[in-house]
Fold this protein.
Amino acid sequence: MQKVKVNGNPIQTGETPQSLLTFIRSHYLPYWPLFATAMAAALACAFLYLRYATPLYKISAVLLVQEASNGLGASDMLQSLDLMGGSKTIMENEIEILKSRTLTKSVIRKLNLYGEVIEKGKIRDVVRYQDGPLKFVFLEPDAIQPAATGTWPFTYSKTTQQVTIDGKRFPVGDTVQTRWGKLLILPQGNHTDTAASYSLHLMTEKQWMQRILATIKIMPAAKAGSVVDLEYTDAAPNRGEDILNELIREYNKAAVEDKNRTSANTMSFVEERLRIVSAELGQAETQVEKFKRTEGIVDIGEQSKLFLASVQENDRKISEANMQLSVLDAIERYVVSQRTTGNIVPGTIGLTDAVLLELVAKLSETELQLERLRKTTGENSPLLASLNRQVERLKPAIMENIKSLRANLEAGLTRLQTENNRNMNIVRSVPGKEKALLEVSRQQAIKNNIYTFLLQKREETSLAYAAAVSDSRIVDAAESAAFPFSPQKPMVLGLSVLAAIALVAGFVSLKDMMNSEVMFRADIEKMTTAPIAAEIMYHDSKNPVVISHDSRTAIAEQFRALRTSLSYIGLNGDRKTLMITSSISGEGKSFISVNLAVGLSLAGKKVALLEFDLRKPMISKMLNMRAVPGISNYLVGRASLQDILQKIDNNEHLYLLPAGIIPPNPSELILNGQLEHLLNELKERFDYIIIDSAPVGLVTDARLIAPFCDATLYVVRHQRTPKHYLKLVEELYQNRELGKLNIVFNAIKRQGVAGYGYGSGYGDINGYGYTEAVKKTGFFKRSTK
């Protein structure tokens, strides 16, 4: 609320600044027809878009990525060493693999996605993935060049079983040579609309790969879990399902191949050893057979049997220890090797230490992951750095374990050799033939044990190779949504309405911003602290008087409210002089002066209305009264008050003092001292004196008259008063150059489409600067004086 003081007591006048709701109602509600038209057009465009837009379906699948199980113990020890890292890093690796270009290329090749059949429809084109008339199988995908991609119309004759494309005719069901390499064209489905138009849309493998990678979304279902959600969007839901399912199959296949690589290396090692040991065993058996046949040995004594069993057992242990040492040497060479790719994992035959076996298996698995990840990520990838750190932690642990096992094996060998030396002394007591037989039989038993052991390991490796499965499990196979994901009708309609509202609101706001005249009460309140005494609506009648005894119009009530507020702005008792001015010509100060004077006279107050705009007087023309003699004649001493005072017909309380002859020097005339004498005479005879002065923004007349007045009404007109003049109003109010200044917001008119609304004002009125005299009305008649 604006505050003013009357007799030293502060009172409130005017209204509080506009709330947001009031601002919207005043600024935008008048343009509701424009908003309605824009929203109707936007909804029409939205419905057209929904009708012609290609629907997209969301296809989703769920995959569970399990941690690999090696079947060995000592997991607590590995966890304490923190050699495997966290599960989150592993999940990130698997997601990167699922999004790799290698798997995507495999999916494209398996599904032969290079060409899609499109049926041209009346409303929109439709992708025919599995229900088109033909299926195009590209046998040479690398021959598809970017220049040959795009949309190629074709026609298909079911009668002749021929297809015409690229200006050439090809038989259906046969391999043909085209600009896209060898192509196999096969009939497919029963969808053959003779009236439909078909085309083949071609893309290269790289284009398809970029399209899939840009569309597919792979993300963990939960931070701490190992479930992965896969999403893909496609216009053909069956194709999207095939793409996701094939991607999962290729991922599982690659995981199994990585697992089988270690088994294949072990199998190769076992086969090579079997070939060597088989040859050695054959030689040993031949020697035994030859010795028995030559020496005629049939049986060995009981003592020799016991010795042979003891020696064979020791020899077997020595052989196993030597083999384990050889395996340890091979593992050590593998660990210290600096190659990062192509490093074959040695076999671990004969080793029984669970920790070493698990460490070697983890090292092999980590290096396989490194090799696989280097194909999809850069060298500076955080994932590669994490795996490299795992490798660097695993190698020292393996070397320490090898050192410990080698020491134990060497100690065992020394003990077995010592025991064998003792047994050899016993051998010397055995007869020569039995000793020789014992030697050859021992070699045969050693080779036979090694051969049997290798056969067992080969079967175990073959079983592991055949039983290898992926560590992932399909929770939900790819399935498309029942309804299109895009376009979403509620969203499209809502966005279209919001866009229409924003567009019109922006237009209205821009229009208001570009307007340099005062449009709103808020403009006045923003630029000046002067109180607003009244708001007067637009009056489009040619009758300048809008208030009468029986008038109940809105504008008449506004003038009655202004009449009531005069006591609050300082007019009461001996304070009876009111000046009305404005910034520029045409703001309606004369209109305000006339109607305010009439309103006061209707209340039984005796009112003198002074036409003190000596430069451009308008009141006498508005009231159809004579203009001379007038105030200028009085000021120069050529007329008395009685000569210039005119009584208004049909109104015994209202008198007019016209301007008189327009003088060449109005300012000097005001300062000649006669003005004060005139006002003193009027104060003795009238209850109110209303002075219609010249605009203060153009001349100084109002400033010269102000010291003789008790209050001032400053008229600001809607769509007429420039906004920069409000700074002048504020200066006048703060400096009190016009005394107690109050603002009247005049000629507020309807705004918006078709003149709807009163939020910004009501328009133009001929309040000041009438272009022609108002004709005689029923209220006032031409004076005969």
The mean pLDDT is 80. The radius of gyration is 54 Å. The first strand starts at residue 2 and ends at 6. The CA atoms of residues 717 and 746 lie 5 Å apart.
